[in-house]
Structures are given as C-alpha cells and as structure tokens.
Amino acid sequence: MGRLFVNILLVACFALPSWGKFAGLAYVGEIEWDKRHQTAVKLICDTTATDTVWSLEMQGAVEHYDTLLLKTGDGKVLELVPYDEKFDHVTDSIGHSSVTGELMEFYHYETVIYFHITTTALNYIAEHGIAKLRYGHNDFYRDKVYKRNEFGKDLAEAYHKVLEQMSPDYVPPKKPSIYDGF
Fold this sequence. Notes:
There is one protein chain. The longest helix has 17 residues, at 150-166. Helix 2 (119-128) packs across helix 3 (150-166). 15% of the residues are buried. This protein is globular. It has three helices and nine strands, in the order H-E-E-E-E-E-E-E-H-E-E-H. By secondary structure, the protein is an alpha+beta fold. Strands 1-2-3-7-6 form a five-stranded antiparallel beta sheet.
C-alpha cells in the first residue's frame, strides 16, 4: 500500500509542471451583430511549463464551429477556426408551479466557442486595429464594421490586462470591505 502511494506521489510530482495553469482572463466586450444578436467575447490565457496559449471565447449568437474572420485596419485578414465548443446552461428565471407549488427553473442553453489566437496576431491587432469582423460559414454569416476600431482597442486593452495579471510583480486590487470609509 505504501509503495502505491509513493508511486502516485512521484507521478504527480513529475507531471505537475506539464499540467496547465490558468494565467489570465479579461472581458473584451460585446459584438452587436444586429438588434437581436449579440456575442460576448473574452480573452483567455492558459500556460504550461513550455507554452502559453491564447484563446478568444465567444458566447451568445454563435453557431457550431463557424469561422471568424478579422480584417485589420491595414486590410490584412486573419482567419480563426474554432478548436472547442461547449454549451452553458443559463437560468432565465425561477418560479413556482401554480398547480403543484414545486420550484421550477426556466432556462436555455448558449453555445460557447473557443478560438486560438497567437501572440503575434494580438500584437498586430493592438498596433493596426480591427476594421471588420465576419462570423459564420459560406451559406450564412454576419458582419460587423467598426469605424473607429472599438473592438480592436477593447481586445488590445484586454490583452495588456492579462499580461499585467501574468506579471510576477502583479498584486491583485484590494476588494472593497464594508468597513472601508466607515
């Protein structure tokens, strides 16, 4: 029994550096495709002992494995293909049945799509901005045009915020307390 425990500890100690570590997350903003369809976007950074992986998370008006095209301010096009998807259970409301009195939950599911994005692409977007987004596939897609690079600025700001969080000198801001200023 002791030998099994020691073996498990040895495997855990050697594997620990290679296990992923969540390094940072920042909310980028909402893409309003039209009055009825919005998509929330987050920038995520995961690290391992040998690599740093950046991802864009899109939730809301997204479909199963569609492509995201980003056109920069200087006309270059970046194509992002999703690598993962999941479905989030979103509670709309909770109420009681008028017949049985039981507690009832009203909910829907939202698709969440993940796209890999490189550090080079993030730096390029921070420098040149984003003029247009297109999300979908050949038969159906949505466009969003930016006149003043709003989405590109938000993405660059989120990128710098995550880099700051990953810094060894980073100290998280103090959470407010009920006693502050009393």
